[in-house]
Amino acid sequence: MKPSCCSEIPAEALETIGGKGGLEGLLAALPDDMSIVRVRTFHHACADVYRIKILELLRVQPLCACIIRETLGITKSKLSYHLKILQEAGMISGTAKGTWIVYGLTESGEFCSSMNAKVVEGSGNGGRNG
């Protein structure tokens, strides 16, 4: 007999998740809301052209903001905005060196950058064309 909560789900479909604890088991497998927010923040930080370029520059070596800004040809305020998002996502960190800050990749930033490289190489496309 089907549980009353699942009246819209065919019995055959419910059987496929029976070994996983049913709907309750699937819900229990989901990360908590705070973890979901962290994942969303991570993906948001990885999903902008300038932020991807910043990560790729920092993959080469740690750089000060003035070199990043000049390389990308963007304003100080735009760079500051993107650096803030990357820092809040835990992808980059800054270290004071005299009167400026040198930014470098964190472990999360290295992970995102390595995933980007796999996509560029063609191995991150689900097996198509690569």
Keywords, separated by commas or semicolons:
single chain; 130 residues; mainly alpha; Arc Repressor Mutant, subunit A; 3-stranded antiparallel beta sheet; 7 helices; 58% helix; elongated; DNA-binding transcription factor activity; DNA binding; HTH_ArsR_DNA-bd_dom; WH_DNA-bd_sf
Report on the structure:
The chain has a domain at 35-121: Arc Repressor Mutant, subunit A (Orthogonal Bundle). The protein starts with 10 loop residues before the first helix and ends in a 9-residue tail after the last helix. It has a 3-stranded antiparallel β-sheet with strand order 1-3-2. It has 7 helices and 3 strands; from the N terminus they run H-H-H-H-E-H-H-E-E-H. With 130 residues, the chain is mainly alpha-helical. The chain is elongated, with a radius of gyration of 21 Å. This is Metalloregulator ArsR/SmtB family transcription factor. One of its GO terms (molecular function) is DNA binding. Pfam families: HTH_5. Residues 31-127 form the HTH arsR-type domain.
* Largest sheet properties: 3 strands, antiparallel
Head-to-tail CA distance between termini: 47 Å
Order of helices and strands: HHHHEHHEEH
CATH superfamily of the domain at 35-121: Winged helix-like DNA-binding domain superfamily/Winged helix DNA-binding domain
What is the architecture of the domain at 35-121 at the second tier of CATH?
Answer: Orthogonal Bundle
Question: What is the C-level CATH assignment of the domain at 35-121?
Answer: Mainly Alpha
Structural category: mainly alpha
